[in-house]
Design brief:
It is built from eight helices and 17 strands. With about 325 residues, it is of the alpha+beta class. The termini are far apart. The model has no long low-confidence stretch (mean pLDDT about 95).
């Protein structure tokens, strides 16, 4: 049953604390900074080493906050008395969360009088978890979107406050959907806060029977199993671009498949076998149907259109890709 989401509002602009870390959260922070309310502080994950020299790099949200002279707090652990005390010092009316990266304890959830809300990159209750955008594409969903929800102690289980949806394009990738939903999340957040101030925001419990999960992506999720259908493999290639990327093996080297499309060439051989090679096309058999590779990247080399790649590699029908790679 839906109920009004109506904590007691102060008779002034809201004091907001924003908790987020990656690029996905930046548009939401920017939208709040441009609103009539006041972002009194930002919480994000600590700087992390990156690159060959392992120099410390600030999270994108930190860079955005500092560009607007907003105080930034980067605790190693959020479940400590010191972290709670720091947040108490900011006296937030409302805490807004967007891909912060940690589950918040009840002590923080109970801190702001107007509560804690979160931007989640799926149409809950579908795809709770860390990688909702990628798994939505991989599973062949036709729609995705964002949910503004109350934060609870259980992962992505809070009441739904507001949702906006988008139609997934046939060529949608994990990267393109990330950018679309980051912008949509910022828009939905502003609309939800406006409705909240007007007393029009409604909290709807999630349907537990409809819950699905989107687990954290691992590098090995990108490994192509050629016994799967061409449709399934093509979806995962798009879903896992740009990370972790989909890959197979050519000899003892990893071959990333950056783009591919379904082929009409009939496949009646062992999955992973090259069944057709033209000057500008390479087609591989799968467990059901075949797949034409469009753009690839061999380990240690730059990404290439398939025509440029084939110009330097003597692949032919009968060769098999994967750990079982063999030349016909």
């Amino acid at each position: 049953m839906s109920t009004p989401f109506s904590p007691l509002l102060p008779a002034r602009p809201l004091r907001l604390v924003f908790m987020g870390t990656p690029e996905f959260a930046v548009p939401a922070l920017q939208a709040l900074l441009e609103s009539e309310d006041t972002v009194v502080g930002v919480v994000c994950q600590p700087d992390k080493p990156a690159g060959r020299r392992l120099d410390l790099h600030a999270p994108p949200v930190k860079d955005s906050a500092q560009a607007h002279a907003v105080p930034v707090f980067q605790p190693q652990r959020i479940r400590t008395p010191a972290a709670l005390e720091h947040l108490q010092g900011w006296q937030p009316d409302l805490i807004v969360v967007a891909a912060y990266g940690k589950i918040l304890p009840k002590t923080i959830l109970d801190l702001p009088p107007c509560g804690c809300i979160n931007i989640h990159a799926s149409l809950l209750p579908k795809y709770r978890g860390a990688a909702p955008m990628q798994w939505a594409i991989a599973h062949g969903e036709t729609h995705s979107g964002v949910t503004i929800m109350e934060v609870s102690e259980e992962l992505d289980a809070g009441d739904i406050l507001f949702q906006k949806s988008v139609i997934l394009k046939p060529d949608e990738t994990g990267g393109s959907l990330h950018d679309t939903l980051a912008a949509l999340g910022a828009q939905a957040l502003v609309e939800a806060i406006t409705l909240f101030k007007q007393g029009k925001l409604v909290a709807t419990p999630q349907d537990n029977a409809a819950v699905t999960y989107a687990p954290l992506l691992k590098k090995e999720d990108g490994a192509i199993d050629w016994t799967h259908s061409a449709v399934s493999i093509e979806r995962r290639i798009r879903a896992f671009h740009p990370w972790p990327s989909s890959y197979t093996w050519l000899g003892n080297k990893r071959l990333k498949i950056l783009a591919a499309h379904l082929s009409t060439v009939e496949a009646s051989t062992v999955p992973g076998t090259i069944i057709d090679r033209q000057d500008k096309a390479l087609t591989v058999a799968t467990g059901q149907g075949s797949l034409s590779l469009d753009r690839v990247q061999l380990e240690g080399k730059k990404a290439l259109p398939i025509a440029a790649f084939l110009a330097g590699h003597n692949l032919k029908p009968g060769d098999r890709l994967g750990h079982h790679w063999q030349s016909a």
